[in-house]
Structures are given as structure tokens and as C-alpha cells.
């Protein structure tokens, strides 16, 4: 068991760069929103929000295959099984590459059908289609950057993982400005800027393997059916976590278009961009703590597992309270970065205050899922993931405004997350004991 001072150093080393990398990663979408809202207009902002479910499905697939492999890698690394850890990495890389190719073909060949499926109206159809088509051209690099960031961090180069994402974000900001304003490429320019930023991130992350840092190497894959199953099953809860956002936005888009029209959707879009950064912080804590819990579990250190879990809960909960409070101070000013039409700001701020409340219980739910995954409680992780990502959010978004009217439209997610938190507390097993580790004999 590590001393508490050593544990704190480990948390700082893994979690802080992970938070930074995730915030930078989500900045891609946020910057797109700012430039689209200011440089193209509110309809374009609404169009990007309609495309978000597709772009985040891409992220969810890549995250599933990455986290599944990274979880296996962390446990094997903790046991000292370096060859097995490397094979988990290479298998994940192959699966992510295949997913990127498939997503590229779907997005480039069928953008109009995707836009129609996600509810694009006649007014928003063309811009939604354009964004999906051009964004999809870079699907391989979007997915590989997610893979690279996670495995480079888990292989001991958390600083490089951070700088890989930072370099891509800086490039994206500059290119967004260049393509949207001087070049006047509109919504297409924002999508291309994001894609080129991801290429730069991939190049920076690749230096970890070129310089042969850590234990991971680019080598021939040893095909293992059991490993495929482990990657999918342990990554599936992460997929559901990531899918909660596109499912929520998809449902909300339909409800908002019905109640408030295209202008209401633009107002909601600005709100979701603001919350992306907060969501990125929560996921950063989650992904940073995952290798620490996984390694400690692999090493059969029960007290360290509990310490990392409780610390992650505390970090996320405090962060959620502080950031939600900050929205009351900077909300209107920050939202104006996305919306030129000041008449929409009160609607967007109301959405931010109501919808944003859900981030407080969500911050805890995300850590519960990570804990379950990292300690081989995959079935419990799936229960909680499906609860918050598929079941309660979908039910509440449609049911609450129907029952209580349009005034309640921003509160379904707080109800969904609280219901999920109750389930997470109920299904969590008792205090981890040393005897619990008999399950890792396989």
C-alpha cells in the first residue's frame, strides 16, 4: 500500500494532466460554437447542435474501444504483464482505426440522411449536412487522438498527452478564425479547422511511440478472442457514459424545436457549449483516476483502491459546486460569446441554470461508473451507465415538459441524474476487502 503522500503525488501526476487534456479536447467543440455563432449566425449554431449527436457518437465509439483496452492494460501492467498490456493497446488501436474508417464512409456518403434523422428542419438542413460531411472527413484522426491520449497517459507520459491535445486546440482556434472570418468558409470552415487540429494532436502523441517511451510499442497484434470480449465489455459502460450527451441533446433538440423553434434551439446550443467544459473536467478526473484504481486493483491494494475512489468523488463534487456557482456570475457574459442576438440570452441563461444543476449529481455518477469498471464490476457499471445515459434522461426529457408545461423544460436532467445516483449507491458493493481480489485470478 502506498503512503498517502505518495497517493497524492500519483493523483496530481495523472489527474491534473487528464483534466487539462479533456478540457482542451472539449475546447474543439466550444471554439467551433463561438466562431460559428459570431461568424455565421444563430441558425448555423443550431445546425451544429443538430450534428452534435453524430459527432459525439464518434467520440463514444472511440472512447469505448479505448477505455476498454486501457482498463485491461492498466490491470495487466499492475501485475507486471507487459506483453499482455501491449497487446491490449494494439488490439484497441486496430479496433479504433476500423471504427474511424467506417464513420468516415457513413458521414461523407450519407450526411443528409443523418441530418434528417437528427431532426434538421428545412431551414437548418443544408448547414447541418455540410458540417457532418466535412467533420466526418477527419473521423480517423478524431478517434486516434482519443486513443493516443489515453494510452500515452496510462504509459507514464501524462505531460505529453496534455501537450498533444493543447497543440491541436491551439491550431484549431487559429484555423477556426482563419477559415470562418478571412476565408468566409462558414460552417464548413469550422469543421475543417477541428479536423486539422486533430491531425496535429495525433502527430504530437505519436512521438511517445517513435521515441519508445514507456512499455508500449507498435508491433504485430496477437489475435485473442477473449481480449476482444474484454475490451468491448469493459468499454461498453464508457460508451454509454459518452452516449448520454448525444442522446440527451437528441431528445432535447426534438422537444425544443416543438416548443421553442429554431431560435430556442440556438439558445440551448449556447448552453450546451458552456457545459461541455465542465463535463470535460469530470471526465478528466474519471480518466485520470482510472489507471490508479486499475493498477491498485491489479496489485491487490484494497486501501489504495478506496482512497483513489473517495478522492475522485470529492474532487468532482467540489468542482461541480464551484463551477455551477460561477455560472451565476459569468453566465450571461459567457453566453454572449456564442449568441449575437441578445434577445436569446435570457432563454439561454435559464437553460444554463436549470440544465446545469444536473452536473452536480452527474459528477458523482461518473466516478461510480469508473470505480466499477476499474474493479471488474462491469455489470454494475452497465446498470448505472444505462440508467443515466439511456433510460432516465430519455423518459424525463419527454415526460416532464408534457406533464408540467414548457416552464419545466430545463429540469428533466436533474431528475434523471438524481435517480441514477440513488441506483449507484444501491448497487455499490460493500467495503472492498483483500478477499475480494480472488476474482482477478483469471
Question: Can you walk through the features of this model?
Answer:
- This protein has 442 residues and is mainly alpha-helical.
- The protein has one domain (4-441).
- The chain contains 15 helices and no strands.
- Helix 2 packs parallel to helix 5, helix 2 packs antiparallel against helix 9 and helix 10 packs antiparallel against helix 11 (302-335).
- The chain starts with a helix and ends in a 15-residue tail after the last helix.
- Residues 431-442 have low confidence and may be disordered.
Q: Which properties best describe this structure?
A:
15 helices, mainly alpha, 442 residues, globular, single chain
Quick recap:
82% of the residues lie in helices and 0% in strands. It is built from 15 helices and no strands. Helix 11 runs antiparallel to helix 13.
Cα distance spanning the termini: 22 Å
Given helix and strand content, the structural type is: mainly alpha
Secondary structure tally, helices: 15
> What is the average per-residue confidence, as pLDDT, rounded to a whole number?
89
Shape label:
globular
Secondary-structure element string: HHHHHHHHHHHHHHH
Total tally of structural domains: 1
Radius of gyration, in angstroms, nearest whole number: 21 Å
Share in helix:
over 70%
Strands, count: 0
Largest sheet: none
Strand % is under 5%
Low-confidence stretches at least 5 residues in length (pLDDT < 50)? 431-442
Write the layout of secondary structure elements.
Layout: H1 4-39, H2 42-79, H3 82-109, H4 111-117, H5 125-136, H6 139-154, H7 158-180, H8 186-210, H9 225-259, H10 261-298, H11 302-335, H12 345-356, H13 359-374, H14 378-404, H15 412-427
Helix pairs in contact: 1-2, 1-7, 1-8, 1-10, 2-3, 2-5, 2-6, 2-9, 2-10, 3-5, 3-6, 4-5, 5-8, 6-7, 6-8, 7-8, 9-10, 9-13, 9-14, 10-11, 10-12, 10-13, 11-12, 11-13, 13-14, 13-15, 14-15
Amino acid at each position: 500500500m502506498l503512503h498517502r503522500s505518495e497517493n497524492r503525488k500519483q493523483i496530481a501526476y495523472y489527474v491534473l494532466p487528464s483534466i487539462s487534456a479533456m478540457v482542451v479536447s472539449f475546447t474543439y467543440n466550444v471554439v467551433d460554437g463561438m466562431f460559428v455563432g459570431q461568424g455565421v449566425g444563430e441558425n448555423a449554431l443550431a445546425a451544429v447542435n443538430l450534428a452534435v449527436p453524430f459527432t459525439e457518437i464518434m467520440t463514444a465509439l472511440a472512447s469505448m474501444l479505448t477505455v476498454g483496452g486501457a482498463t485491461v492494460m492498466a490491470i495487466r501492467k499492475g501485475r507486471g504483464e507487459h506483453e499482455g498490456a501491449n497487446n491490449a493497446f494494439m488490439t484497441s488501436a486496430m479496433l479504433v482505426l476500423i471504427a474511424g474508417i467506417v464513420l468516415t464512409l457513413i458521414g461523407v456518403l450519407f450526411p443528409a440522411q443523418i441530418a434528417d434523422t437528427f431532426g434538421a428542419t428545412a431551414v437548418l438542413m443544408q448547414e447541418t449536412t455540410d458540417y457532418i460531411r466535412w467533420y466526418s472527413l477527419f473521423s480517423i484522426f478524431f478517434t486516434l487522438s482519443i486513443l493516443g491520449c489515453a494510452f500515452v497517459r496510462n504509459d507514464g507520459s501524462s505531460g505529453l498527452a496534455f501537450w498533444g491535445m493543447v497543440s491541436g486546440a491551439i491550431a484549431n482556434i487559429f484555423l477556426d478564425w482563419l477559415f470562418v472570418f478571412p476565408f468566409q468558409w462558414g460552417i464548413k470552415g469550422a469543421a475543417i479547422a477541428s479536423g486539422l487540429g486533430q491531425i496535429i494532436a495525433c502527430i504530437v502523441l505519436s512521438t511517445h511511440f517513435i521515441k519508445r517511451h514507456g512499455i508500449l510499442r507498435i508491433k504485430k497484434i496477437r489475435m485473442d478472442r477473449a481480449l476482444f470480449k474484454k475490451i468491448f465489455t469493459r468499454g461498453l459502460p464508457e460508451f454509454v457514459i459518452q452516449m448520454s450527451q448525444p442522446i440527451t441533446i437528441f431528445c432535447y433538440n426534438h422537444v425544443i424545436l416543438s416548443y421553442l423553434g429554431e431560435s430556442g434551439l440556438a439558445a440551448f446550443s449556447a448552453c450546451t457549449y458552456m457545459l461541455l467544459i465542465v463535463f470535460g473536467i469530470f471526465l478528466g478526473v474519471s480518466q485520470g483516476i482510472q489507471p490508479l484504481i486499475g493498477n491498485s486493483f491489479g496489485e491487490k491494494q484494497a486501501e489504495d483502491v478506496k482512497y483513489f475512489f473517495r478522492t475522485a468523488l470529492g474532487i468532482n463534487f467540489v468542482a461541480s459546486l464551484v463551477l455551477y456557482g460561477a455560472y451565476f456570475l459569468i453566465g450571461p457574459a459567457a453566453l454572449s460569446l456564442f449568441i449575437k442576438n441578445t434577445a436569446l440570452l435570457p432563454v439561454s441563461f435559464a437553460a444554463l441554470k436549470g440544465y446545469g444543476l444536473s452536473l452536480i449529481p452527474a459528477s458523482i455518477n461518473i466516478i461510480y461508473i469508473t470505480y466499477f469498471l476499474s474493479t471488474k464490476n462491469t455489470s454494475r457499471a452497465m446498470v448505472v451507465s444505462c440508467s443515466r445515459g439511456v433510460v432516465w434522461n430519455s423518459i424525463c426529457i419527454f415526460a416532464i415538459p408534457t406533464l408540467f408545461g414548457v416552464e419545466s423544460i430545463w429540469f428533466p436532467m436533474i431528475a434523471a441524474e438524481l435517480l441514477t445516483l440513488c441506483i449507484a449507491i444501491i448497487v455499490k458493493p460493500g467495503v472492498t476487502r483483500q478477499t475480494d481480489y480472488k476474482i482477478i485470478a483469471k
